[in-house]
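call fold(seq) -> C-alpha cells
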Amino acid sequence: MTVCVKCKIRIAKRPCPALGSSLCNLCCGLLREKEVHCPAACPFLGRHKPYQEKKVLEKKSPAPSRNPFAEDEILKDERLAWLVFQLEAPFRVFAERSPSLTDKDVILALEYAQDKVEKGKSLIILPGEGLKPKNALGEAVYQASENTRWEAPIILASGLEAYKKDEKLRCLDRVIRTVKYLARDNPGGRAYLTNLAERFARIKSPS
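ret:
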C-alpha cells in the first residue's frame, strides 16, 4: 500500500507525472498548479481544472443583491401580511393618479411614515410648519399603519386587533427593502410600482 509522498499519512491513489510519485486525493488538489507544475496530459488536471476555474470566477463575481422575497417570514404570517398589503395600497392609488410618481418617491414616503411611527403620536408641529403634511403620500401610509386592524379567525374571535409599534416598523422596513430591491437599477423609474400594479390586479378579493 503506497503512502502519499506529501503528507505521508493518507493512502496515495493518484500517480503524479510531475513528481514521479503518488499523492493522496487531498494533497493532489492542494498542490495542483500551485506547488506542482502539472503537465497538460495529467488526467487529474483535465478532470478538475474546469471546476477550479468556475470557483475562481464565482469568487471574482460580485455578490447578487439580497432578495427580500427569499425566506420572507413576514409574508408567512397572515396577520403581518395583511398590514403589508394595507401599507402598499396607497401607492397603487397615487400611482394611478400621478404618472410622474417614481419608486424614489415611494421610498421617501415610506421613510417618512417609518420616522413618524418611530416618534409616535407625540410628533410636535413647530410654529410656521402649518398642518399640511410634509409628505402627502407618506402621511397616507402612516394613516394606513395607524388605522389598519386585524380580525382574527372566527374560531379565535377576540375583536379587531391593533398592530404594535414594532410590528408596524417591521412591515414598513419590509416594504422599503422590497422597493429598493426592485428599483435597484433605476430608482427614478417605476419598476416597483409596475410590480405592485400587477400584484393588485391578480387579487380578486383582498379580504
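Residues 73-201 form one domain.
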